[in-house]
Amino acid sequence: MLKKNRFWYQRQVQAVLLCIVWISLSVSSAQPGQKPPVPVSQNPRQTVDDFLNPASPPITLAKLLDLLQRVREDIETEGRLIRAIDARGVDFPMTPANEQTIATAKGSAKLIELLKRKAPPPPPPPPPPTPVEEKEEPRGVLTVQCEPAECEIAVQGGPPPLGTKNGTASVQLPPGVTLVDISKPGYLGQHHSVGIKSGADNSLSVILDPDAGTQAEFGARLFKAMVEAAGGEATHKDFAVFSATGSATLFDAAGSGTEWNLTVTFRPGQSSLEAKNSAGGLKLECRGETCQAQSAGKLLAKRLSKEQAQLLETNLRQFRTYHFAALLNHLTSAGMDATAKTANIPGSGEQHLHLEGKSEAYNISLDAQLLPAFLTFESKTGLGSGLTLGFADYALVGASRYPRTTEIKLPDGKQGLRVRFGQFGSQTGVK
Fold first, then answer.
1. Is 403 exposed, middle or buried (0-12, 13-18, 19+ CB in 10 A)?
2. How far is CA 304 from each of CA 204, 283, 286, 332, 414, rounded to the nearest angstrom?
3. How far is it, in rounded angstroms, from Cα 303 to Cα 398?
4. How far is 377 from 40, CA to CA, in rounded Å?
5. Alpha-carbon torsion (209, 213, 219, 221), positive or negative
6. Are residues 248 and 321 located together in one domain of the fold?
7. Quick one: 273 and 415 in the same domain?
8. Any idea which of 12-16, 340-344, 358-362 has the lowest mean pLDDT?
C-alpha cells in the first residue's frame, strides 16, 4: 500500500513540473512589446423582440384595441405601439367606421395618421348581383265602356287615371283580380272588382247615375222639352176648345171588356162626355168640378143597369180628369219638382221623368219624340196610388199634339178604360 501511494505522488509531481516548463517556454517565446492573446468572449447570442420585428404578422384591429387598453392602463406605451405598427403594419383598412372605433378607444391623432399610411386600402365593393330575368306572364286587356261618355278610369296597379274616348278605354294589366274606379263630375262613382285573365280580352260596362244636383238639372230640362214637344204655349189655345169622336172599351174587375161609341167636347170650365152602345148610353155633363150623369139617347132607348151605369160613369170621370190636355195643364201649373237621370235632347230612345209635388208624384216615360208614353200616379196619402196611364199615336191638333189612344188602368187590378179617337172637332183641325 505504501508503495502504491509513493508511485501516485511521483506522478503528480511530474505533471506539475511539466506545466511549469510549458508556461515558461510560452513566455520566453513571445516577442518584446507583444500583448498576450485575448481569450474569445463566451457571452450568449443576443435575442430579437418579436413585437417590434418587421417579420412578425401585421397587427389586427382586435389586437390594436387590446394594446390601446394596455396603454390606458400604463402597461404599454403608445411610442412602442407606434414603432410596432411602423415596423409590422396592420391588416385592416382605415374605413370611417374603423377610425371612429380607434378614436373611441383613445387612439391619438398621431397614431391615427400613422394607421392611415400603413393600413391597406379598403377592399373593392362586391359586384352587383346579376339580375335574374323573370319571365313575365302575358298580360290581359281590360276594356271599360262607360255611359254616359266620357268617364275617368282608375285601375289599381295600372297606369295613371285615363279618360275614355267615345265612352271606351283599354288598359293592359297583369293577370289576377284588380279594382277599377269609374268617375265623372256630376255623377255617382262606381267601384268594381274585375278578374283579369292572361292573354284575354276582359270587358266591363258601367252606367253611372247622376247625383242629386245633376238629376234636378236633367229633370228641369227634360220636363221643358216634354212640354215643348206637346206644343208648348200653343197647347193653351189648341186644347182650350176641342171635340173628338171615337170608341171606348171599358174593362170590369174581371177584365171583361165592353165596346162603346164615345163623343167628347171640352170647353173652358165645362166638358161633355157621352158613351152609347146597343145596351144604352150615358152622358156626363160637368161644370167646373161638378159632374152629373144622365141617360143618353132617345126617350124610349134602353136603359143601362145600375152596375153598368156606375162602371161607365166611373171610367168617364177618370178620362175627364186624366185625358192628355187636362193632365198636361195640371202638370205645368202645379209647380212640381222634376228629376231625371238623362236629358237627351233631341230625344233618343226612352227616357224617364219624375215629377213630385206636395201631395202627389208622377213617374213619366217619354218616347223618342219626348212625348209621354206611360205615366204612373202616386199619392202621398195612398189614395189612388198605382193609377197607370198610357198615351200613343199622337196627332196634330192645331200646332199641338194629342194622343189618339189613351189607356187608363185603375189601381184595383184589371179594371180600366181604353179610348181611341178617330176624328177631332172641326174647330181646331187635326192632321
1. buried
2. 62, 12, 20, 38, 22
3. 38
4. 143
5. negative
6. yes
7. yes
8. 12-16
Between helices 96-104 and 61-72, what is the axis angle to 10°? 20
Q: Phi and psi (nearest 5°) for 426? A: -75, -15
Exposed/middle/buried for 204, CB within 10 Å: 0-12, 13-18, 19+?
Answer: middle
What local confidence, expressed as pLDDT, does residue 10 receive? 62
Report the sign of the C-alpha dihedral through residues 223, 228, 229, 232, in that order.
Answer: positive
Rg (CA), the chain: 61
Contact 165, 224 (CB under 8 A): no
Q: Are residues 111 and 152 in the same domain?
A: no
Q: Are 371 and 401 in contact (CB under 8 A)?
A: yes
Residue with cell 247622376: 210
Span 91-126, pLDDT tens digits: 999 999 999 999 999 989 999 999 999 899 888 888
Same domain, 314 and 350: yes
Number of folded domains in the chain? Answer: 3
Residue 417 C-alpha cell reads as 178604360
| Confidence check: pLDDT of 4 > 50 | no
Give pLDDT tens digits for 37-74: 545 445 555 567 888 899 899 999 999 999 999 999 99
Burial degree of 401 (CB within 10 A; 0-12, 13-18, 19+): buried
Which helix (H) or strand (E) segment is 207 a member of? strand 201-207
397: part of which helix (H) or strand (E)? strand 388-397
Pairing state of beta strands 351-356 and 360-366?
A: antiparallel
* Residues 144 and 190: beta-carbon distance below 8 Å: no
Say if 79 falls within a structural domain.
yes
